[in-house]
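Tokens for chain A. Residues wanted.
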């Protein structure tokens, strides 16, 4: 009894650590501390369960060698991956780890299904074999269990499998190993497959129809749905699906908490599920997409209503010396970071550029689009890594009002989030997506390696604007030369 009280206290402490950890994750300067606090709470909960939990009949956990073996192997692999990952690969790692969470939830359902069911004997026969009487029992394919537990098990399997398959495909797509593909009648296929999955689950749970190996049929169909769900998604829509799959994993983990009557597992799953859902809604708003369209896979393939209009104008280049001079004698400069900044690993030198400009009494801010990069918060984490002050990171809704009073906007590797076609061209795949209104500034300097299209695969009207000047080359090298020009000026 005392052990149970101690375990309950540990669970409460673990749950509180999750809440405080998430709270501290809200700011870059406290995010590391928040992550550590949440990790300590999770560690306490895991070891408390291992050593203090007692099941029915006052039985402790068994197979501790397998448990600790898994903990050690997983810890070593996770630590090595975290230390080696580049900031450009952070979205891939997040998707991979999230997929592992979904896989764990699905495996819990598979294991607990067999623990929770009792084979039903429908007939017995007395036979004599080699003169020895024997009883042969016929067991039904249907394994009745408590309906509430059956619902939790089947939902955990479905949601966990979708999260696993979807996250793994997202990982491969972010790593550019698989390209987007939209099937004919994609919506109809997705909706139909989900209807079949729910129908089989309902028949199995309530015993309406006997479906042999229904759990494994659902596992296969759910994995297929996860692939079909993510397969058409591309372009700047990827942050939406990452946050949505994260919420799926949280819900699946919460269902595992129900199965084991584990309060901290339930609480942690609810936190992840709700936070992921809220983030998904925010991402949908930033992308001007509805959550319903996300759920049925109706985005990423483009919303084009016709042929995109031709872009007119000419490209105008600028030298590094002229760009440095232009920024040095400005009153306000706004830097727009994009995925190209991460690819070039230019965040540290970008911070040095900011410091050089401020030394010349230039006000510097960073304009952060909600879906800049490949996952929510990618740019915030990237810049925080280089010690950029959090109060200089200004969200889209706030910074858009300041572009009219900005002398120079420096776009570093961003593309789709500054493309005016989102406002001007109804035939564009990104039409309707809220963007950073950088074209309202006096001058726009765009840093790019080439004229290659962005992640959405379309040309950018901004590059042909009369206010725009292109500065071609590697972002890190170009900014380094800009810093040298400022120092020598």
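Reply:
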């Amino acid at each position: 009894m005392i052990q149970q009280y101690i375990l309950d206290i540990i669970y409460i402490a673990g749950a509180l650590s999750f809440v405080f950890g998430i709270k501290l994750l809200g700011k870059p300067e406290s995010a590391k501390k928040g992550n550590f606090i949440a990790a300590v709470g999770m560690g306490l909960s895991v070891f408390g369960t291992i050593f203090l939990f007692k099941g029915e009949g006052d039985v402790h956990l068994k197979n501790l060698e397998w448990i600790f073996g898994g903990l050690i192997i997983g810890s070593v692999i996770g630590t090595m991956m975290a230390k080696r990952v580049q900031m450009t690969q952070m979205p891939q790692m997040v998707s991979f780890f999230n997929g592992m969470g979904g896989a764990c939830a699905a495996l819990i359902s598979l294991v607990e299904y067999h623990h929770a069911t009792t084979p039903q004997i429908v007939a017995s026969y007395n036979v004599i074999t080699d003169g020895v009487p024997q009883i042969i029992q016929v067991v039904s394919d249907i394994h009745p269990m408590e309906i509430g537990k059956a619902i939790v098990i089947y939902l955990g399997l479905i949601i966990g499998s979708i999260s696993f398959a979807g996250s793994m495909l997202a990982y491969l797509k972010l790593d550019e190993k698989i390209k987007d593909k939209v099937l004919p009648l994609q919506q109809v296929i997705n909706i139909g497959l989900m209807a079949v999955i729910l129908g089989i689950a309902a028949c199995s749970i309530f015993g309406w129809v006997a479906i042999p190996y229904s759990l494994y049929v659902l596992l296969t169909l759910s994995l297929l749905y996860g692939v079909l769900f993510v397969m058409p998604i591309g372009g700047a829509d990827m942050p939406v699906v990452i946050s949505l799959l994260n919420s799926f994993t949280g819900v699946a983990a919460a269902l595992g908490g129900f199965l084991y009557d584990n309060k901290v597992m339930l609480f942690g799953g609810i936190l992840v599920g709700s936070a992921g859902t809220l983030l998904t809604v925010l991402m949908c708003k930033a992308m001007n997409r509805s959550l319903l369209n996300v759920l049925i896979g109706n985005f990423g393939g483009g919303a084009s209503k016709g042929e995109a209009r031709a872009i007119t104008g000419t490209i105008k280049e600028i030298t590094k010396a002229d760009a440095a001079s232009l920024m040095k004698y400005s009153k306000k400069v706004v830097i727009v970071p994009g995925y190209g900044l991460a690819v070039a690993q230019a965040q540290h030198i970008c911070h040095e550029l900011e410091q050089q400009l401020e030394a010349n009494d230039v006000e510097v801010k960073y304009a952060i689009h909600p879906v800049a990069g490949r996952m929510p918060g990618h740019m915030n984490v990237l810049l925080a890594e280089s010690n950029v002050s959090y109060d200089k990171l200004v969200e889209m809704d706030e910074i858009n009002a300041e572009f009219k009073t900005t002398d120079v906007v420096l776009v570093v590797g961003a593309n789709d989030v500054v493309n005016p076609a989102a406002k001007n061209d109804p035939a564009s795949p990104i039409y309707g997506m809220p963007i950073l209104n950088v074209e309202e500034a006096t001058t726009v300097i765009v840093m790019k390696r080439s004229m290659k299209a962005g992640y959405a695969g379309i040309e950018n009207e901004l590059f042909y604007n009369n206010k725009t000047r292109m500065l071609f080359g590697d972002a890190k090298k170009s900014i380094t030369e800009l810093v040298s020009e400022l120092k020598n000026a």
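Residues 1-82 form one domain. The chain is about 55% helix and 10% strand.
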